[in-house]
Amino acid sequence: MRPVFRIDRRSRKIFLSRASWSRRLWFLLGAVLVGLVSVGFAVAANQANAFFHRLVEAGAWVPFVVAPVGFALVRWSTIRWVPGSQGSGIPQAIAALTLDEASRRRLLSPKVALGKIVLTVIGLMSGASIGREGPSVQVGASIMYALSRSAAFPFEGMQRGLILAGGAAGVAAAFNAPLAGIVFAIEEMARSFEQRTISIVVTAVIVAGVVSLALQGNYAYFGRTVAGVDMPAALPAVLLCGLVGGLGGGLFSRVLLALGTERYRVLTRWQRDRPVAFAAACGLTVATIGALSGGLTYGTGYEETRELLTGRVDSETFGIAKLAATLVSYPSGILGGLFAPSLAVGAGFGHNLALLFPAQPHGALLLLGMGSYFAGVVQAPLTAFVIVLEMTQNAELALPLMTATLIAHAVSRTVCPRPLYKQLARGFKHTG
Question: pTM higher than 0.85 for the full model?
Answer without folding.
Answer: yes
